[in-house]
Amino acid sequence: MKDTLKHQGLRQQLVSVVKSKGVTDENVLKAIAKIPRHLFMDSSFLDHAYQDKAFPIAADQTISQPYTVAFQSELLQIKRGHKVLEIGTGSGYQTAVLCELGAQVYSIERQRELFKKTSKFLPKLGYRARKLIFGDGYKGLVEEAPFDSIIVTAGAPFVPKPLLAQLAIGGRLVIPVGDEVQTMTLFVRKGPKEFEKTEFGEFRFVPLLEDKN
Ligand code: SAH
Hints:
Shape: globular
Order of helices and strands: HHEEHEHEHEEHEEE
CATH superfamily: Vaccinia Virus protein VP39
CATH architecture: 3-Layer(aba) Sandwich
CATH class: Alpha Beta
Bound molecules: S-adenosyl-L-homocysteine
Number of helices: 6
Number of domains: 1
């Protein structure tokens, strides 16, 4: 697992691209500059790792586009020690960004192959999530709730109620909602039954799946 000066240089260029698209959060940009994205991808895609694009990983899934990862991470407004739930561990790249931001990370993945692979891989890079879970993200993780923020990294046809219910007061849910194309949506919990909703631009994700495969 090599991280060369060339990779680091390419990462700096990637940070500039992400910045030029409007991401300003310094901690998020630092995380992108630091994390060796090429190591999260299958080797045939090594040359592409620092393009601002999504790429295939195992189990017909994708590692999200860096801009999308940065945009969602910025919306979460993570502070050190925040308890954060991620739905869709995938390659673990977004998980690593959350760890770099100082969050206590819980992440759920429903593809066993990815769950196993990423559970082994992340600690090798020094990223220790609080818990990686093989399960269904639609249900959230009620035994660890409430969360300061929840991030969904797959396209959700609707907003799962358990995720809203598992937010702390003041907590933030960032979720791409839609079928073919998704609208990035932020919910901030203002009170026990009160949520403020803000919509951002359109994005494309692999679908958040309800039933097994
Ligand atoms: N954050 C990941 C993105 C992976 S793509 C990364 O940066 O690599 C979205 C992931 O969500 C896929 O790995 C997919 O298997 C997973 N997923 C889809 N439906 C899910 C569900 N119901 N619960 C948990 N994970 C799900």
